[in-house]
């Protein structure tokens, strides 16, 4: 109740106010160095760079280990729940190239760069064997593309495609040979529901933030986003955990029994005099060479 909005009463008032604001603006800006001025408040899209060597090491780990590594650090969940492999055995690893779709609207369709200048084709051309194209859909059943569009991704030998939307022409995409992770498959056309709008911005995919350059790793358990800014630390924790889990499985295979004697464990909190600590010491893993023990956490 009581809300009111105000508009211009006359063109003359608008003109007079414009003169006043222009004069004030000139006085203020004359006191500010040009280098201190900016147009909008927005952070950088990318959070850092990941080397080819680190990318390969991250790809050698399971998605479970990477999720656990981020969890140990206290970071939010990084799994893209709405993306599953299109066929068994698919695995992807690469730096994220992002593409954001927005709901269709006539002016959006008119203003979006047309044909080969479309943001989606701009994103395609940034992809290669060490990149994964991550497409944020407006809905799980909307199509982000099919065989004709994605033929270009095959030609580029892309490292993978990930979306929380759906893909069409499923058989052809599987035959293309690159890893594809999607919510599902569909026969629908996409343009009636959404339009590609921005390449390499920060996007949300099933509620998980993805920045350009983040590491994307996908396997049969799902897809995980490893933020570029902490990728080295995540690898260190996750790799250490996988080594320990292999030792535990080997021990339980040789000496069957309840796993609770050794597992689960918290990285950075393993006690040296615990059954797990003693088992690891017998394999040469100690606080001197591992960050998994109590007092050794380096994150």
Tell me what you see in this structure.
With 299 residues, the protein is of the alpha/beta class. It has nine helices and 13 strands. It has helices at 11-29, 52-59, 63-73, 106-111, 119-124, 147-155, 170-176, 231-254, 275-282, and strands spanning 79-80, 84-85, 92-103, 131-136, 160-163, 166-167, 180-182, 184-185, 194-199, 203-205, 208-210, 215-219, 222-226. Strands 1, 2, 3, 4, 5, 7, 9, 12 and 13 form a nine-stranded mixed beta sheet that branches. A two-stranded parallel sheet has the order 6-8. Strands 10-11 form a two-stranded antiparallel ribbon. α3 crosses α8 (231-254) and α6 (147-155) runs parallel beside α7. The termini are far apart.
Give a short synopsis of this structure.
With 299 residues, this protein is an alpha/beta fold.
Which geometry do the CA atoms define? elongated
Beta percentage is 15-25%
Helix content: 25-40%
Low-confidence stretches: 24-35
What count of helical segments does DSSP give? 9
Ends distance: 53 Å
Biggest sheet statistics: 9 strands, mixed
What do the pLDDT scores average to? Answer: 90
* Quaternary structure type: single chain
Number of strands: 13
Rg over CA atoms: 25 Å
Q: Spell out the helices and strands N to C.
A: HHHEEEHHEHEEHEEEEEEEHH
User: Structural class, from secondary structure content?
Assistant: alpha/beta
